[in-house]
Design brief:
The complex is a heterodimer of chains A (about 60) and B (about 400). With about 60 residues, chain A is mainly alpha-helical. Helix content of chain A is about 85%, strand content about 0%. Chain A contains three helices and no strands. In chain A, helix 1 packs antiparallel against helix 2. The longest helix of chain A has 25 residues. Chain A is elongated, with a radius of gyration of 15 Å. Chain A starts with a helix and ends with a helix. By secondary structure, chain B is mainly alpha-helical. Helix content of chain B is about 65%, strand content about 5%. In chain B, a hairpin with a 2-residue loop joins strand 1 and strand 2. In chain B, helix 1 crosses helix 2, helix 9 packs across helix 10 and helix 10 packs antiparallel against helix 11. The radius of gyration of chain B is 21 Å and the shape is globular. The two termini of chain B are about 35 Å apart. The chains are: A mainly alpha (about 60), B mainly alpha (about 400). At the A-B interface, helix 1, helix 2 and helix 3 of A face helix 12 of B.
């Protein structure tokens, strides 16, 4: 799950960069930048989820 | 830096107080040396030599191409040399942030190695993109997004980069021993000196006035007279945030919580850093109030629900408040002589996406690799004994009576 989280974070940034490089119309650019940010938030969620300590580790 | 170090020490346990201060000194020393030796080579300054790719006719400035040991810049008081100096202090400040989150369990050797990674790789790359004429700074020129990514005082470049490094370190280290019960309930481990913490707040305020003013002059290119606005906005934001934290804790717990108020104060300073030279005072006040709310609730969320053991509150205070400051800059900024800043919010969002999508994976991966080579967490015996005795051989307060339960094997 950690690796998936990292990949989601990178993928989201990739979407944002690609949108900047490829899109010219402002609404499409806004939509893709927002979409990239949402993908990053999903990656962040996975990262937090994968780092929840197991009960035996916390003792 | 002194203020943050004092706050970090005060928010930790008495048995690790000297360790935090020594670690702060080590972090500042390592960061200065590594940044001068190689960090500035990737960071550079606006208009300096850099590796630029052209994509669809637009230049993408990725990384500076300076020689090592700052040999490419005349250290004579020129804007480039002043920018180099400010960034050397900036990376020292960023290096202190993870100490706050990982204290009581982070080995001194690992602190030095991790700081070298921050000063030699993570910080310079992002700083070049923002302050060194990189692609984020040029979003306005190349893609018409406002004035490009705006972060004159380092809310993203210093605070969020430090905060995300802190998050990575905390994830890698795990929580302190006995912080969470087997059922997952967090135990309260209060800081040992609230006087240190509050005095640290005053020191950080003075330091931040200088940081925001110098950043606005060097990277925001303001007239010297506008430093008055910078000082007013910085103070207003911290005051609003600190008071908001005080009010919220008073309502929630019946009494104001001193450590959360202090964190709220610093959260306001952090949020003010993004664009204090380009905001009306009323906007700074609003930014501060929201930063105070965010920090106060986020400290609980991180501890209770996300199980992130962050004794100094570094992640909410530096990462979260910094991200809010960057976003708020896009919403409220007004440039002199312009009625609106079209697309500025989108430029800020691209910067935020870069921090989360590039800086966090980079700093996490590098620190994870370091942990594979050189384990960063202290042995269980060291954590039980306290970092002062275990790593330094002497406590910060040798004349204090030590509670016996601290040395009983559990």
């Amino acid at each position: 799950m950690k690796l998936a989280g990292l990949l989601f974070l990178l993928a989201g940034w990739g979407i944002v960069l690609s949108a900047l490089a490829l899109l010219r119309s402002t609404p499409a650019l806004v939509a893709f930048v927002l979409a990239g940010t949402v993908v990053e938030l999903m990656g962040l969620f996975l990262m937090f989820r994968s780092h929840l300590p197991l009960s035996e580790e916390t003792r | 830096m002194a203020g943050l170090a004092l706050m970090n020490s005060g928010l930790g346990r008495s048995r690790s107080a000297a360790h935090v201060m020594v670690a702060s000194l080590c972090a500042v020393s390592i960061s200065a040396i590594v940044y001068v030796v190689c960090g500035f080579s990737w960071d550079g300054f606006a208009g300096g030599p850099a590796h630029v790719w052209t994509m669809k006719g637009k230049p993408w400035n990725w990384i500076a191409a300076q020689p090592f040991f700052m040999r490419g810049v005349e250290l004579d008081g020129s804007p480039a040399s002043l920018a180099a100096l400010l960034q050397m202090f900036g990376v020292g400040l960023a290096a202190l942030i993870p100490l706050s989150a990982a204290m009581d369990r982070w080995r001194l050797g690992a602190i030095c190695a991790s700081t070298a990674i921050l000063a030699g790789c993570t910080f310079p790359i992002f700083a070049h993109w923002v302050w060194g004429g990189g692609w984020l700074a040029q979003l306005g020129v190349n893609y018409g997004l406002g004035q490009g990514f705006l972060d004159s005082g380092g809310a993203g470049t210093i605070q969020v980069v430090g905060g995300l490094t802190a998050l990575s370190i905390v994830w890698i280290l795990g929580p302190r021993r006995d912080k969470y019960s087997p059922e997952g309930m967090p135990a309260a481990i209060p800081g040992h000196s609230l006087a240190f913490v509050v005095f640290g707040c005053f020191l950080t305020w003075f330091g931040w006035l200088g940081l925001n003013s110098a950043g606005a002059l060097l990277f925001g290119h303001i007239q010297a007279g506008r430093m008055v606005l910078v000082a007013i906005n910085t103070t207003l934001s911290a005051a609003a945030s600190g008071l908001m934290a005080l009010t919220v804790t008073r309502i929630r717990f019946g009494r104001p919580d001193a450590s959360i108020c202090a964190n709220g104060w610093v959260g306001g300073l952090v949020a003010s850093s993004a664009a204090s030279a380009f905001l009306p005072p009323a906007a700074s006040l609003l930014i501060g109030f929201i930063a105070g709310l965010l920090v106060t609730f986020a400290i609980d969320w991180f501890e209770m629900w996300l199980k992130v053991d962050d004794p100094g509150g570094a992640i909410p205070v530096h990462a979260l408040a910094g991200l809010w400051g960057l976003l708020a800059a896009g919403l409220f900024v007004r440039f002199p002589g312009q009625k609106s800043a079209d697309g500025q919010w989108l430029a800020q969002l691209v910067g935020i996406a870069t921090l989360m999508g590039f800086v966090l994976p980079l700093t996490y991966s590098l620190n994870w690799l370091l942990n594979r080579v050189y384990p960063q967490r202290v042995e269980p015996e060291g954590e039980r004994q306290g970092m002062d005795l275990h790593e330094l051989g002497a406590g910060a307060y040798p004349e204090f009576v030590v509670h016996t339960d601290e040395f009983i094997q559990r």
